[in-house]
Amino acid sequence: MSETVNVAVDAMGGDNAPGEIVLGAVNAVKERENIIVHLLGTEDVVRSELSKYDYPKDRIIQVPTTEVIETGEPPVIAIRTKKNSSIVVGMQLVHSHKCDAFVSAGSSGAILVGGLVIVGRIKGVERPPLAPLFPTQKGCSIILDCGANVDARPSHLVQFAKMGSIYMQYVVGIDKPRVAILNIGAEEEKGNALVKETYPLLKNCPDINFIGSVEARDITEGAADVIVCEAFAGNIALKMYEGVGKTMLKEIKGAFMSSLRGKIGGLLVKPALKETLKKFDVSEYGGAPLLGLEGLVVKTHGSSKHKEVTNSIIQCISFKEQNINEKIKVNI
Amino acid sequence: MSETVNVAVDAMGGDNAPGEIVLGAVNAVKERENIIVHLLGTEDVVRSELSKYDYPKDRIIQVPTTEVIETGEPPVIAIRTKKNSSIVVGMQLVHSHKCDAFVSAGSSGAILVGGLVIVGRIKGVERPPLAPLFPTQKGCSIILDCGANVDARPSHLVQFAKMGSIYMQYVVGIDKPRVAILNIGAEEEKGNALVKETYPLLKNCPDINFIGSVEARDITEGAADVIVCEAFAGNIALKMYEGVGKTMLKEIKGAFMSSLRGKIGGLLVKPALKETLKKFDVSEYGGAPLLGLEGLVVKTHGSSKHKEVTNSIIQCISFKEQNINEKIKVNI
Lengths: 332, 332
Hints:
- The structure is a homodimer.
- Chain A is α/β, with parallel strands linked by helices.
- Chain A has two domains: 5-125 and 292-322, Isopropylmalate Dehydrogenase (3-Layer(aba) Sandwich); 126-283, Isopropylmalate Dehydrogenase (3-Layer(aba) Sandwich).
- Chain A is 47% helix and 16% strand.
- Chain A has twelve helices and eleven strands.
- Chain A has helices at residues 19-31, 43-50, 75-81, 86-95, 108-119, 154-172, 193-203, 216-219, 231-257, 260-279, 306-321, 324-331, and strands at residues 5-10, 35-41, 60-64, 101-104, 133-136, 139-144, 178-183, 209-215, 226-228, 288-289, 296-299.
- In chain A, the strands form two sheets. In chain A, strands 3-2-1-4-11-10 form a six-stranded mixed sheet, with helices on both faces. A five-stranded mixed sheet of chain A has the order 5-6-9-7-8, with helices on both faces.
- Chains A and B meet through helix 8, helix 9 and helix 10 of A and helix 8, helix 9 and helix 10 of B.
């Protein structure tokens, strides 16, 4: 049987905590026999949620915490002062190797700071990027950095390219993943100062399969497997993806409902449409790992429902099995 | 009757030139009686295209040119050396006030350089932004800068906010347009160095209705009327919009065709779907004006079909009628 993976899960973080988080954890241990979840949160609140479900009791361990870091709080102060919060305690479980990973839908800022300060960087990694997978026509791609380090430097982007390549090769199983830099044109002379400085570095990097620039409009077609960018641009690309998808679906559904003909047609196309939407549903891919830390930290959407939480927990298995951090250590 | 608007149109620029451009020009003069098109391009090529259509002959004037600036050419050299290209001659028609506007689907770089060097900036305007309208659930918004000035400074973004507000108020007809800065979080302390420096300047700018930050995922819902950003980020947001829309449609259509049930349903929902898609079709809004020049220069997509060309030409009417450049002069 495969090795057991211990995942600390923040039951208090995100818009739908604790209900959806706890259900996500319950489903994860039911789906995979080799997962043990350490569920962090206010003791009676979490117990009461857990009591709703039937699940293998020995594989969800409650870890009571007494504080909660709110989204609006200044991250550095929150991490320093709220020692008994679900985020700080979860990070410590990873730092002390009691857990392999920590999953949270809580404050992005606190998760980033906690990852750096408590879990710590792999030696040599300058800036750990937030690296979500997202669906494309060809399968999925990874985009990094998507929110951890604004105003990054060229050397950071080169490390992102290496870490993203390792992730795509060993977790997703793509041989020689195609690395591209997010740009506003295909030609080498296009771009802002950061892109122009980074481009030749990527071109001369022997460890990656660099294919040049990728424009945002070609990302969803699957034009590259690893997309490297500074966090501000990456965050905008990913959130635009989510926003356009959401708006178009809403509009299409609304259009179907506007006439009897549309309603009948809508019923007929429903299964096919559902299948397509599932393919382009970011929550199918779990959360975004913060790559380059001495342990795995996964940030899921603040709006995560149970399915995304489950997928984020399950995602930790391949990360451990493939020994991603060892590979990053060797490569950086 | 309303004033005549003279529009120079580049028949040689873009992936579908000259066919779609010439047809777009023909349709524009047929749709609006107060437009005169000055059609720039290789004489016999343009004449042969024009001969296919029936249109008011006195309102399309052929302006023969002998050179073409290709997309890959270094823009500054191209503008300097190809004096008889459709882009250079078109810009000169605007500079000499023989035309009110120039519309081109050609090389973005050459159009930007030509706009600055030949048409010239309005006094006080630091950097003319590329400012496309795009569809949202609530109607449309303008995003600027979308590709003209990478690595812009805070003072540029403040001018973008003012020019965008004028455009939305007088061309689109939105009273007190809501201005937001594109950001990666809603809180004031979020963002990169540029956003953090620009935010207080916008907040204290009396001429605009600043509502704070907007995240990319809320743009398509219509969260702001004027979205201000640096060109790299803006270009990524807009192209991501186009890419996701295109991919989703392709996938949805593919899904309908995958079964008989889907095919029948697809036929029934077709009219409703078509209506929705039309609403979210960027080409309905014409091209992107380069704001802040001593005349109007409109860049349409390289892949423009005739409809976008027609709409781009027609768009020039309100720009002239509303005297946008005078208003910019007063405000900057």
